[in-house]
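Hi F.,

I've been meaning to write this up properly since the lab meeting, where we talked about keeping a consistent format for the predictions we share between groups. The idea is simple: the sequence comes first, exactly as it goes in, then the structure tokens exactly as they come out, then a line or two of notes. No screenshots and no reformatting. I'm using this chain as the first example so we have something concrete to point to.
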Amino acid sequence: MPVFQDDVVVGVVVVKIAIDITGRVEMIREYAHSFQSLAKSLEYSSIEGIDEEARLKQAIENMLSESEQNQETFEGLKAQVGDFGKGFNVVATKVCNLSKLVERAVIHVRTTPI
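Output, unedited:
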């Protein structure tokens, strides 16, 4: 289609080009709006991700702290059991010695004439 034949042809071509350009501009605006929405969504997701990461880090720190407290409690209980075990050993030794003393006394009483 010749562009420079007469004013009508030129006008029709210019209008078609303008309509095409306007359509493309609108399409670009829609893409820009879509990209802007996507960017906001990603930013929101990123903020949520950062918040979630902070919550996970805090939960891990809490578990670590509880684990350390449990370890300290375990060490304390282990020491107490060790102390109780030592005390039990002392008592058991004394009971054993007393038993031997009673055994010797019984033997002495049986073997000693009155």
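Notes:
DSSP finds one helix and no strands in the chain.
The mean pLDDT is 78.

If this format works for you, I'll send the rest the same way.

G.
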